[in-house]
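Forum: Protein Structure Q&A
Topic: Joint prediction for protein chains with partners

I've read a bunch of threads here and the consensus seems to be that you should model interacting components together rather than docking separate models afterwards. I'd like to see that in practice. Below is the full input, 665 residues plus whatever partners are listed. Could one of the regulars post the assembled result?
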Amino acid sequence: MKTLQGTSASRGIAIGPVFQYRQPTLQISRNKITDSEAEKLRLNLALETACTQLSDIYDKALFEIGSHKAEIFQAQIEMLQDPDLLESVVQAITDDCQNAEAALFDSSEIYAATLEKMGSEYFRARAGDIRDAIQRVLRILTNVEENTRNALNQPSIVVAVDLTPSNTINFDKNMLLGFAIVMGGPTSHTAILARSLGLPAIVAMEEGILSLPTGSEIVLDGSQGELLSECSPEIIAAHRERQAINQAFFADLQSSAMNPATTLDGFSVEVVANVGKVDEAAPAVALGAEGVGLLRSEFLYLQRETLPNEEEQYTAYRGILDAFGKQPVVLRTLDVGGDKELPYMDITQEINPFLGVRAIRLCLKRPDLFRPQLRAALRAGVDRNLKIMFPMIATLAELRAAKQVLAQCQAELRQEGVAIAENIEIGIMIEIPAAVIMADYFAREVDFFSIGTNDLTQYVMAADRTNPGVSELTSAFAPPVLRMIAQTIDAGHRGGRWVGLCGELAGEPLAIPILLGLGLDEFSMNAPSIPLAKQIIRSLNRSVCQVAARDVLNLTGEEEVREYILRTFPVINDLVK
Amino acid sequence: METTLTIQHPVGLHARPASIFVQTAKKFTSKITISLDGKEVNAKSILNILALGAGQGSKIRLVIEGDDAEAAINALTELVESNFGGVD
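Posted by a regular:
Agreed with the consensus. Here's the joint model:
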């Protein structure tokens, strides 16, 4: 057996014969033209044909991989209609008498070359998108057919120097088992496409793959980024078994989304959704959300000219509460100020908005903002399972002040004879290190904690999460952040309170065993992450996670934490790619 | 008219956000330029916008001249502030 190494681009295992695919290299002819009008017409026809093709591919991609990812092809159409590009192409044709091929190639290469030199991999990958779009036009101008559509006559693993997004989408999906290419990176569009199509794929492969004979049987392990050739029947059989387990797992995902998240050793946790709009509620229920762990009430306040009144807020909250029936909905009171500006509010510009008057700090200063929201929430929660949570709490005094405003609103509404939610649970977001340190005291005065890891991380690490210069410091996998989470959960539990987490970390496959091991009671995440997160929880033993969680708290770097989890939980290793 | 906007999208003004941005800019007849770090380009050209390399946190300046400048500035501001309709 021989092993060839690359970078994992899309998880899963493919077993089958090699197909060596080579993109025809276009030799562009360069010649002086005499009739520039005719040449411009030729160019325009080719551009138009290319855009029609791309728009067909877009429709196909829309159906196969969904709207967000299909936008790649929309962007390519946009590139071919770029006014600045076309101006310089036309200029080269009319002023320099260049033929359309040469004019188009040269003008577009300037942009591709600029993008290729950029620091961010996302921008570098766009150079490939421009070249792919331009190659399409050049093929039309020179009458060379794109040859992936009927390239495969049996289910095969495609091996190539490079594949463009349009090559990839054009292969017959019944014939394409997976692919391995020498070029590319894990965030190239081809890699993203592979993940969306659920195709095992490896990029940045050793060049040795190019000499594998077409038709020879190989194993492509997309999760490990390995390609195995000259395998014994035993090796093939072992990988077929892994492949079957993998496939069953994903088939189950959607159908089991509504099942509870109970570990193999019988411990259940709550998996709920972060919701930011009324129309996200019903889809979240369908994806298996058992409630809302974070209702971002900001949605009502942003992108408008005036403050939403109590009635408007009541209707919106009630709509979301209704979608979840008896299931819990945790409403986080307004978290704006600082960097999230409200145009209709006179908020002072601050030098350090993340450390300034935001969230509860603003609400306590502005009862005109805070009270209508609390009144609307209390009214909307009647006969529903509403919980109220205050964001950015640093001190017990803030918590007490917020609770006092809430109590006043309750008293007021009762006096007005209005029906309100009774005995609602009150909680706080734990996102400021001060609150972690004092969590034992907070536990005496609230019903629950919800850890906001995005903000907690930036405050623990003193690293602005919107500043790319310090992005290496903003991982919630950093042991100091994990220790803060552990401390919060312990303090909550000692005080008899439940603890949730509503940052991005909750839906991270690699974080789930850690959080489960630390004893987290409620995982709140973006709804699309729920089916997988539930399935991961169901495939874990809580007792094993507890040992792992203790171990990672004694590691010193976030990379070590990730490696430890990947090593300890091979099941997750298969899923995260 | 002019305004300064901050790109919040985690991967910056690249493929999808850039594409949506240009599609929106093209709806207006006004001349729209976008600049970053002293480099000024046509906001209706996706290639030049990509070449700006406006990553997350970049502060871009829009200058708009023409009959529908006000509508254009509102539409583009809303687009950027709504994070291009969501993070992918």
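The first helix of chain A runs from residue 36 to 65.
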